[in-house]
Amino acid sequence: MFSLARSLGQDSVAALAVIALGAYGVVESLGYPLGGLRNIGPGAFPLIVSVLLVLSGALILAEGVAALGREREAPPDLASARVMIFIVAGLLAFAFLMPRFGLAPAIAACVALSALADGSLKPWQVAVLAAAIACFCAVVFVVLLNLPLDLVTW
Amino acid sequence: MSFFENISLGLSVALSFSTLGYCIIGVTVGMFIGVLPGLGPLATVGMLLPLTFYVPQTDAIVMLAGIYYGSMYGGSTAAILLNLPGTAGAAVTCLDGNPLAKSGRAGVALFTATLSSFFGGMFGLIIVASFTPILARIALSFGSQEYAALIVLGLLSAAMVGNASKGRSLAMALVGLLISMVGIDPNSGANRMTFGMLSLADGLNLVVVTTGLFGIAEVLSNAGRIGSRDALSTRIRFRDMLPTAREARTAIAPALRGSSIGAVLGILPGTGAALSTFVAYAVEKRVSRTPERFGQGAIEGVVAPESANNSAAQTAFVPTLSLGIPGDAIVAIMLGALIIHGIVPGPQLLRDHPDLFWGLVASFLIGNVILLFLNLPLISIWVRILRIPYSVLYPAILAFICVGVYSIRNSVFDVVAATMFGVVGHFMRRLGFPPAPLLLGLVLGPFLEQNFRRSLMLSRGDIMTFVERPISGGIVAVTVLVVVYMFWSDFRRSRRSKV
Asked: pTM of the predicted model, to two decimals?
């Protein structure tokens, strides 16, 4: 019984999220000219899509009620806080370092931080991995493919 | 132009030094990411898309396409040896491929999977070469009404046909449409949904959304979960790979059925390779006189899905190159690549760029042959690649994503946006939302809006124009039938399960 309650709960969360997004879309698109049928304005198409989005939210809820009591495939589990924090931190570190210090340090930081999410590598392995991937990216992207990226800048 | 002129034109393009090189790179990368569980063709194509901005257009498409069908070959390796699908299209292959491997016949399973893949690929290739020009000729008479109707059909079939909940898939396609409207509206110049941010004026880049929703979200789901793998360490000799004569005979019909199913589902806009494997397997089980062998290592259970997914991976290009409507989400990204290179996808593509189309078709032929030789003699290398631990792999994936996204326009904003899409995409998966329809909506959104607007302008505001024109009316009728049938079959199933 517990799993049933949880799956309906999941459907309601999903439906609410979709309906909220659709409602936001409706409000947002009403801020633009709708135009007439002969020449529809920039707001008309987003309005149609947003209204349909609200309706699809209702459909999700209806499906959830109809599927009550039936077995369903469980969706994947959520990432642990550790995975979430270190991977997001790695990506943001790249975004922060790239324009300031260049490609090589940005990649090294991204790899080193995100590798900590898993936790199965020893510190020296993480360091080697970060250096190796930074070198690889430097050779492939900057030397071979000639992307206009600075390797190291101050 | 005659057929042979076309083929020789294609071969002259595909065998040129640079195109052949990109074809080899494409299929090898495809094979590699196909073998590795946890890295799919969608994320890879999205990740490598920015790199193709610096490459000639034909080479870019040849390489991206090679990644797609190459991954269909590679996907079966992990499925058979580890019972872990390397790609979504290989999940069904686990069912009978892995039992075969456990009974000591891994070599036979790998050999059969590769040959079936090759057969399906060739089958799909013939369909692409023969159907695309016909469809393109028909489509030349299409107006905006027909296009608007076709796009709606594509989006709805992507949402309706499949295993995921219809409401959720539909919502995802709509969210994709909504995201596609972010930025300056080309008709009126109004800044839509940009929250006043200048970085959003050009809209959200396809690469940003794809790498976020697929690449980063997949890493978030898998990091710390996929442990080290112990692949079968036994050496597979070529002698052990040959199936018995009886097995070879029983494989012919399933290969033909699987390829046909794959071809149909590949051409249908919105449905792709992964779905075709489920259908092909179910059909084999139903027509078999000994259905109880399925799941125990039936050779048909490997042949049918492997030929289906390769056939579908090729025929997905039929609607893409003839109508400009992608057959599935991966081809949708390639459509985006074409647009970036300034090529307008649609029926005029074949007329204006015959070298691109026939070159691509010829590269399919060459790529499939390369994959055949890449697979069988080098199987021990791919088995070794299976042992690369995910803890080493995913930081590299993230680094490539960062470089790819940043290199589009040297924008920090794009990297942060991709990160956000990754986190949101991860939560979306947790709530059971399938991400693929979103991508289709994102790519098709601008076309849909443009054609919808133009139709209404041409008809002076008469909404009935969509059903009054014969072809567009026919497409609308098919769309309604698909929707009604899908809801009806759902309703029937839920009634039956309650009784």
From this structure: 0.87
